[in-house]
Amino acid sequence: MIPRHIGPSTKEANQMLEQVGCSSLEKLIKDSLPKEILSLSGDKNSLSEIEFLKYAKHIGSKNEVWRNFIGQGYYQSFLPTVIQKNILSNPSWYTAYTPYQAEISQGRLEALFNFQTMVTELTGMDICNASLLDEATAAAEAISMAWNIARQKKHNVFIDKFIFAQSLAVIKTRSKTLGIKLIIDDVKNVNNYDEDFFAVLVQNPNSKGEVNNLQNLKTSFKDKNTLLLLGVDLLSLNLLNSPSKCEADIVFGTTQRFGLALGFGGPHSAFISCKGQHKRQLPGRLIGLSKDKFGNPALRMALQTREQHIRREKATSNICTSQVLLAVLSSMYAVYHGPKGLKNIATNIHTKTKQLASQITKLNYTINNTYFFDTLNISVTEEDQKNIKIHLTKHKVNFYFPTNTQVQISIDELITEKEMEEIYHIFAKESFANGRGEKLMFDQKHLPVSKEYKQILLNTITKNWDWSNELQRTDLVLQQKVFNSHHSETKMMRYIKLLEKKDLALNQSMIPLGSCTMKLTSATSLEPMMWPEWSNLHPFAPLNQAAGYLQMIKELKTMLCELTGLDACSVQPNSGAQGEFAGLLTIAAYHKKNKHSDKNICLVPQSAHGTNPASANMAGMKVVIINCDDKGNIDVNDLKTKAEKYKNTLAALMITYPSTHGVFEESIIEICKIIHDNGGQIYLDGANMNALIGISKPALWPIDICHLNLHKTFSIPHGGGGPGVGPILVRKHLQSFLPSHPVHNPNVYDEDFVEDFVEDCFEDCFKNCVSASPWGSASILTISWAYLLMLGFEGVKKSTKIAILNANYMAKKLSKHFTILYTGKNNFVAHECIIDCRDFPEKYNVNIEDIAKRLMDYGFHSPTMAWPVPGTLMIEPTESESKEEMDKFIEALSNIKIEIKKQPELLKNSPHTLSEVTKDKWNYTYSRSQAAYPLAWVRENKFWPSVGRVDQAYGDKNLICSCPLVESFKE
User: Fold this and answer.
1) Chain Cα centroid distance, residue 933
2) Paired strand residues for 298
3) Which residue, 257, 161, 263, is CA-closest to 207?
């Protein structure tokens, strides 16, 4: 796998080494890194691609794929194959980056626009974000959002006790650091409390499956300013009245039922939709409609000033990575099925559930629901439950058991009549055994549905379970053209292709975004997660059914610990920002255990990623900024002064290494000592670990905790802005404070098997829970597992060395035309470099945005713009890019520098679209060929931006975040 993953050949690597003035890779590493931190990881044999696939199949076979009716926010679903093949298995979609460069991202921007439209239509709200990490995180974000809307003047929130356990756990984690008090009770009792609530949160349908009539709930609140927050089942809203009808202010949920696999917990796209007046408090990405320079419609990311990369500790949220790829898949699910198809799916689920309710009632069981959509809560005796579990084992079926005297069943879109018969049999057996029902006269082992059961179905009366009129949806939804046009496979395939052609991804050219590590994701590493043995496990299934998953996770954690030198790992955080939050909570819990609850100061360098101060603020810490010196390094004197000043309250230092300036700072050992001498912990942001893995173990510096970005360093694809995974690794003294979970405690799984969730375990088990699933986005952990197994540690070490070589080669070549802003030891950079363009506006009347847009004409995505230093471009090639590709990019930038001096209007008018270049009139002083084909090799693989330069200001001033109705297309 090593030569498949690494771009430069041995010959090319030697040529590049000669260019940078080193005789070998080993010399480059010694000349670049401080010698005190060099420590090579041991050997670990690699597997070939064929060997890995066999091994993954072997480990996967240890997972027992039972039929799941557990529910609780997770349901089996079917992703139409046309979507799987053309998006999930297509690098044009899964290798793209967050759509900051709108002109070359119109395809996925449209898919996300459809996602927002889908959610706003079904919820009846005005605006929706373009996905969040999971439903539990969305619930916590909704409360934080409501608190900010209330200007943080009130601190009490009422939560209906029938919320999903995982959502409550994450809410508790988030609320305790913000000083928010939770009152948890039946929502029917909300007005019995004297507390002044800033919000009331209700799940509907709730964790028991009950559908509540909430139309008069908000009007009953004592304080009319109290906000109503609703957690919803999006699929049910095809039949149920929209949350807007009960005056909800904020609505949250997940689109997991829209074609997304269970995957032992994820990844799944979540959402928040809300009233338009709250748009500036909405967390996460927001896609808006604007126009390009020709006045044509163009999509872009809107209202970015809300986000962490700009507002830092004052941001509405620390959300950075979301779940774009999953949001695209679920939006396409809605496009393919359309409003009629979605309603049919929801109706089938509801009808089957009503049939089952009638049949079970006839067997003299009590259904505890008055109204339901897909879930039945059934009273049984303890003996009944015990025997039902025995029958379930024989049938390889999972139900949910809220208490010792309840059974709960959630029906999904895949339910068959044969499965209905099996469920009926399980209850009928117990009913007959206890003298409650008639003896069965047919064989349960029939493969087709038996004649007797068909007769039972004919005699089943479901009208007793019909909803009241107030609950039923009567308005039409999803009437936009896009949801009513692509229902044949041919049309769907072509629509996906139409969008695909508008986006630039890694299968077109390199994406040199600094601090983003846009490396190869091998096709082989993506295979296992789509196999049934990995994709069809429910995260709350008994763990003896998940032996393969547990072994895979344990192997991955062991390898990550070996590479960092740290002692323990949690894979629960499903993004780097969530890893930061979880890590800081771990540090806070450690200080509290040691009776140092007053330690709340978090030192953050001024060059840090925006998520760092935002995460520290979320964790209840006070951010103190550390200055950087003229060379971009941490000002050690300023650090020492502030560490000593806050010695009694110092919680942690958050540091990125190599620095966000792309340099190996010489003083890292001294920095760690200063913090430890003053009672703080060292938190390492692992964003730049692609320059360290295999050649340095941070635990030896020593740091105390770090997060890794598996979607950067360990090859999970970026997916257009997610999914990601941000596991945290800790030294021994922090291990007992790692995130837990109310259903399965991931920190003891290899010792204890927890078979059934018991409701009363909230207080003991929610500790620092940050994700809906015990192991976060578990299914995509297989990608990083594959990456490490196929590369082996030798391959990992070589990848790191080549990443450093590629960056230094590019820096050396570009230094002939641009100033490299920061360099480290021996004038080398780490794995990325920054070119200084700060004087360009005054000197040439050209800015970095102009350079970024002109690069599109050459077929390249821009480097990272204006970060970490305004007026600069940060370039990271990764180890996967060949010398040939880097040379093209270097030539493109070098040629642009010539254009800047000679013909800057080439940049000012860029990017140039096909429609513009082929117009009859050409009003520019340069030729069409100069505009579209600035270098000869551009013709070989020309990429055309689908729109002209997008008007950013217009889009924010005229905010439109959902598709127009079909009537607007009439001529």
Assistant:
1) 37
2) 290
3) 161
